[in-house]
Amino acid sequence: MPKKNKLRKPYKSFPLTPHPTGQWCKEAGGVLYYFAGTPEEALGEYNVVWPTIVSTGLDPRTQQGWRTSSGCELGKLLNGFRLSKLGRLEEGELSQSQYDSYVSVCDLLVKAFSTGRIVESLGPADFRAFRAQILGGDFSALTIKHYISFTRSIFIWGEAEGLFDRAPKYGDDFRPPKAKKEGGSPPR
Questions:
Q1: H/E element holding 24?
Q2: Domains of the chain and any CATH numbers
Q3: pLDDT of 16-54, one tens digit each?
Q4: Residue 28's closest CA among 63, 65, 62, 61?
Q5: The predicted structure's pLDDT at residue 93
Q6: CA of 7: how far to CAs of 17, 22, 23, 35, 38, in Å?
């Protein structure tokens, strides 16, 4: 059986990626958007619709996408973030243990808030409860510090990707626990 012709990027900076279906694709907000035809035809369609996809979260061809009318769902944010980090892992820019830590934080966020929660609805009380959940787990102080930092980076990534206009407000309490002082003499 002859092999199918595989698509290849016509040049390195070509913005679309070949997909096994024989189409071109581009990811935004954890959703793949497909473009058909020759590289030139796909690029032409991409140039027309991509600005709308990025700014509104909706594909003007179907009026579907990663953003709901009420905002960006947490599940779509986390899926997009995981895909982004998986790409970094595959490119050698991220270690397996770093990737696993990001996935663990994503899993904790889903457990705390559910995938359907609208990101823009999260606030300081939610992050206080999430911090308490992390503190209640069997994690070292260093792991807790990393998890809080990773959580913030997920939302910063989403804002930078245009998934929502402003990262949530975490509140003053969403920070790592203070380190316990060790050694030294007791106070007099």
A1: strand 24-28
A2: 17-65 (no CATH), 71-160 (1.10.150)
A3: 998 887 888 898 877 788 888 899 988 988 998 888 777
A4: 65
A5: 95
A6: 9, 7, 8, 13, 9
User: Which two three-digit tokens encode residue 105?
Assistant: 């934080």
Identify the residue whose tokens are 């909706």: 58
Q: Are strands 24-28 and 31-35 parallel, antiparallel or unpaired?
A: antiparallel
pLDDT of the residue at 15: 93
| Cα distance between residue 120 and residue 12, in whole Å | 36
Which pLDDT value is given to residue 2?
46
- Its pTM surpasses 0.70: no
Tell me what the pLDDT averaged over the chain comes to.
83
- Phi/psi of residue 42, each to 5°? -65, -40
Encoding tokens for residue 93?
A: 């820019």
- Angle, to 10 degrees, between the axis of helix 74-90 and the axis of helix 96-113? 170
Task: List Cβ<8 Å contacts ≥24 apart for 57-65.
Answer: 57/28, 57/29, 57/162, 57/163, 59/33, 65/28, 65/29, 65/31
